[in-house]
Amino acid sequence: MNMFRVHFIGVGKMGLPMARHLLAAGNQVTVSDPDLSRLALAAECGLASGTMDELARAEVVMSSLPHDQALRSVGMAVAAALPQGAVYLDTSTVSQRVSAEVAEACARSGVEYLRTTVSGNNHMAEAAQLTVMASGPKAVHERLLPLLRCWGPNHFYLGEGEQARLMKLVVNLLIAQTSAMLAEGLTLGQKGGLDWADMWAVLGASAVASPILKAKSAQLSKRDYAPTFTVTQMNKDLDLILAEAAACEAPVPQTAATRQLMAAAQAQGDADLDYAAIIRVLERSAGLTR
Description:
This protein has 290 residues and is an alpha/beta fold. It is built from 13 helices and eight strands. The mean pLDDT is 96.
């Protein structure tokens, strides 16, 4: 496989394992992050911090960022710093609108821009089991596939534009709706006298036993709401989904209702728990207290 000089911006729960996998595959990888504690963790993994000069010498700059504003700021800086022909690859869950702004800035600078969203939590990132969705120049995607394969076995090229951004939102819509479905079903079962652990055992062996339900079962069967993705983070994604739906006039009434349940979870003090904490919202509404 060809080795690349890579600079990775944003080494949080997702970015750090992704950068580590690139390094383990033999690529030259430097990193940057405004959080010094994250840089310290990266250094423990053998990932050196990089300066703007090193960023400008990279063949590929990657980023894993929390929201639109971060992508706009980082993307504009990267487009200005990179030489013509270099590649900017962003993995963030953001709006198509801001991603398109970055695409325009990259085009003006002669920088190739690949949108590469990933589906999976931090545990899946650690295990290199992410699903990778890409859009942008097809030739660039094909050239960088050796890098992308470091993150997981499933890869999808979706088009020349912002398709990967929208596909990630479609996936997250269904994930959020799964938590809402569980909230209603588990509340009904408890009110009718079913045992919590018994319900999880049956659901895991039933026709609705999707990978996400099975992944959640290990934690939630023990009422463990330690976050893989928080209520606050899911609210940000749901707001993106609702905005995209409004822009293309796609009705998403169930998603709008789920956003209200997430708002209730946040208001009731569960903002930093796993997004599945909306189960607790329905339990409270039904008079079930733990």
